[in-house]
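# nightly structure sweep
# worker-07 picked up a monomer target from the shared queue
# config: single-sequence mode, recycle default, output format = C-alpha cells
# input follows
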Amino acid sequence: MSKAGAFIVLIVAILSGLLASATVMKYIKQQQTVAVEGPQMSSVVVAVEKIPAGTEVRAEQVKTVDMPAESLNPGMFSTMDDVTGRYARSSIFPGEAIVSDRLTAPGAAGGLPTLIPEGYRAITLRVDDAVSVAGFVRPGHRVDILTTVDVEAETRETITKTILQNVEVIATGQELEDDESKPQLTPTVTVLVTLDQAERLTLAANAGVIRLVLRGINDRDQQTTEGVSLTSLIPQTKKEERLPEPVQVIEEPKEEAPKRPVRVVEVYRGAERSEVAF
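# output follows
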C-alpha cells in the first residue's frame, strides 16, 4: 500500500471514531436530561369511584392524573369534559383510566340499551326461585334455556327440549350488574338473544314452561340434544292403544209390501160350483 493510501485510511478511521464518540456523548446527555427532568407526562381521566354500567358519568366521579406519555393507550381522554354526560357501557372501577370503548357516543341515551350489542335484542322472562336457579342467576352469567311442553293431553305425552344455549343474562329484575355474591330472588330475568332466538323463546314461553340452567364461568361449548319425552323416560306412563268397541247396529223392521187386491169369480159347471181368484 502506498503512503497516500495509508494516509487516507488513517483519516477515515479518525473521522469514524470522532463520529462514534459524538453519538455516544449525545445519547449520554439525553439520558441525563431525562433522569433530571423525568419522562414526558400527559393528563388522563380516571374514575375516582365506581361508575355502574348504564349510568351517566358525573364530574364528581372522575379526575385527571398525569401519566407517562409513552404508556398511554389509544382512546384515553385528557379532559373531564370529554367524558362527563356520557354513559358507561360496562362498570368502571376506581383508579381505572376511562377509554372511549367503555362509553357511549356523545348524546346517546343511557340505561339498558347501552348494554345491547349490535344485532342483539333484550327479552325479559318471568321467573321464580326454581326457574332462576334459586336466585343464583345474576347479570353477566350465562345460561341454557329449556322448555317443557305437553304435546298430547290425551296420551300424556310431555317433552323437554333445550332450545337455546350459552345465553348471556344482562339484568335480573331492574339490576344491570351483579353487586352481591349472595343469591337474590327477582321476578324477571333479561337475556341477550338474536331476533330469531327471541321468536323461539317467546313461542316456548307461551306453549309450555321454561327453565334456566346455569353454566360454568368458562363454559362456552354447544351440545346437540334430541330432548326427552315422558314416555321414553318412564315407559309405564305410556297408555296401551285399545281397539274401539264394536258398535251394535239395530236394523229397523222392513215394511211388508201392500197386498194386491184379489177378485174372486164363481164358476158353475152343471151342478158343480167353484171359485177362481184373480
